[in-house]
Design brief:
59% helix; two-stranded antiparallel sheet; 2 helices
């Protein structure tokens, strides 16, 4: 279990170092981030919103 915790700590540190943060400390994407053009996630988000509206 200790090995997993050490691995988790290393992964978390690496991810934190590679994440951009705004002045409020929130994680943000820069304007030139390649993930901004990922349309697949837009479709998933829209589907989730539609399903949520059906439940309301």
């Amino acid at each position: 279990m200790r090995i997993i915790n050490e691995y988790d700590d290393k992964v978390y540190k690496l991810a934190s170092e590679n994440t951009k943060y705004n002045s409020e400390g929130k994680a943000v994407m820069t304007l030139d981030d390649e993930w901004r053009e990922e349309k697949e996630w837009d479709a998933v988000f829209n589907q989730i919103q539609m399903e949520q509206k059906k439940l309301d």
